[in-house]
């Protein structure tokens, strides 16, 4: 059974250091509001917090850092805010490209990027292409991403394979399904961190985090630093991971 194989594969990592951490970066707008500033100031501060998180991930030799940057629901925000977020994303990639090279970071985006403007799509493509052979930290950005969307697009791919006769329905297992998700090349998520005080997943990696450890903090994302990051990791190391096994 898949559960048994999963448990055996990752049992040796329980109580040890997480290899793949995912972060729901929440609280930029509330941080700005508390300071009497407009929302884009909070997003700018959140960008600086992300850079610090990446540096800490490198320091701790983390293998994969996945961050929830822009959900599919975020399109419902004001046009001004959305356009600023797109520009900020472009700026992140252009300004940090040298650091990606310097620190051997592989950059990836998971999500439906076709809805982004052509400029941003090209920057994403170039960043992924240039860093493709880097074998250090994988920085995985979830942009225009949603867990339900991820599952649906996986189902569509599987249906296409079945219709072409490449895949038999009775051969579809959990492992098969996982191969068609946006995270198919990545290790399972060990730890999910959510800032901002909310205790929900918000349509993030719904399939992938079935056995992940969850850590919630009231700290707003712009105030997230290495001490909070370390607290989350320390909490993870104290937990006994059972994967539903016993």
TrEMBL record:
Cofactor note: Binds 2 magnesium ions per subunit.
Top EC class for this record: transferase
Positions annotated to bind Mg(2+): 26, 213
Domain of life: Bacteria
Record text on subunit structure and interactions: Homodimer.
Function: Catalyzes the sequential condensation of isopentenyl diphosphate (IPP) with (2E,6E)-farnesyl diphosphate (E,E-FPP) to yield (2Z,6Z,10Z,14Z,18Z,22Z,26Z,30Z,34E,38E)-undecaprenyl diphosphate (di-trans,octa-cis-UPP). UPP is the precursor of glycosyl carrier lipid in the biosynthesis of bacterial cell wall polysaccharide components such as peptidoglycan and lipopolysaccharide.
The name this protein goes by in its record: Ditrans,polycis-undecaprenyl-diphosphate synthase ((2E,6E)-farnesyl-diphosphate specific)
Annotated organism of origin: Buchnera aphidicola
């Amino acid at each position: 059974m898949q559960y048994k194989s999963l448990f055996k594969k990752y049992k040796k990592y329980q109580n040890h250091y997480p290899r793949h951490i995912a972060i729901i970066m929440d609280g930029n707008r509330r941080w700005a509001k508390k300071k009497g500033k407009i929302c884009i100031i909070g997003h700018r501060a959140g960008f600086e917090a992300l850079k610090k998180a990446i540096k800490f991930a490198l320091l701790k030799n983390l293998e994969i850092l996945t961050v929830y940057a822009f959900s599919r629901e975020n399109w419902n925000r004001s046009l001004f805010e959305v356009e600023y977020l797109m520009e900020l994303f472009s700026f992140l990639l252009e300004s940090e490209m040298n650091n990606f090279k310097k620190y051997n970071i592989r950059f990836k985006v998971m999500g439906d990027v076709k809805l982004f403007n052509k400029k941003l799509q090209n920057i994403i493509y170039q960043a992924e292409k240039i860093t493709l052979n880097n074998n250090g930290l994988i920085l995985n950005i979830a942009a225009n991403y949603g867990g339900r969307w991820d599952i649906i697009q996986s189902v569509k791919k599987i249906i296409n394979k079945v219709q072409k006769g490449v895949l038999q329905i009775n051969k579809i297992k959990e492992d098969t399904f996982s191969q068609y998700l946006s995270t198919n090349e990545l290790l399972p998520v060990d730890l999910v961190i959510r800032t901002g005080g909310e205790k929900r997943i918000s349509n993030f990696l719904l399939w992938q985090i079935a056995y992940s450890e969850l850590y919630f903090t009231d700290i707003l994302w712009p105030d997230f630093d290495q001490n909070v990051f370390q607290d989350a990791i320390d909490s993870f190391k104290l937990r006994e991971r059972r994967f539903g096994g016993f």
